[in-house]
Amino acid sequence: MEWSDSWRGAFRIELRAEAVTLAWHGWSVLPGTYPAGERWAGPDGVEDRGPVPVHHDWQDRIGTRADQVATWWSGQSYSILLATGHGVDAVEVDAELGRRAAVALRATGIPVPIVATPAGRWMFLVASGGVLIADPGVTHRAQGEYVPLPPSPAHHGVVHWRVKPHICAWQLPHASVVHEALLSAPSYDLVAADRS
Fold it and tell me: Model-level pTM?
């Protein structure tokens, strides 16, 4: 996705505001590289993969105050990355399983923040510390990892919320809640659920 300079400047303000809001709520956010043609740009040039943290010492920056976080987005339209394992983890699945699990969670009445990427990955944000049963289609992002958060730019779109964190009053469920939804997800009929 090509971004004009004027659009990137306007979008930087939105990214900065979201990063500050997330940091104010105690989420460990970091600036990440952003799309530049087929590669990813950062302060040291371009990378082949991304988004990745723009600071090599990113683990030392975890927990930075919101006012300092604001300065990280003052010059570039960096992606917003969440350092997992510091209060927030992410349970990552493909879009099909994600949709089914979201329906299962809605049926239980338990809201969970859900992030979706243009590449078809869904991430359910949960409280750090839970452990999931090993499953080849499920990845638990925890200590030492990071995931992109909305509205981070991607090559073919923008990372977006399927369920925003304020829906659950910024209270994250235990990973077991999402795990149960993932186990029951294959039984949900998405067509029938969309009609209800």
Answer: 0.89
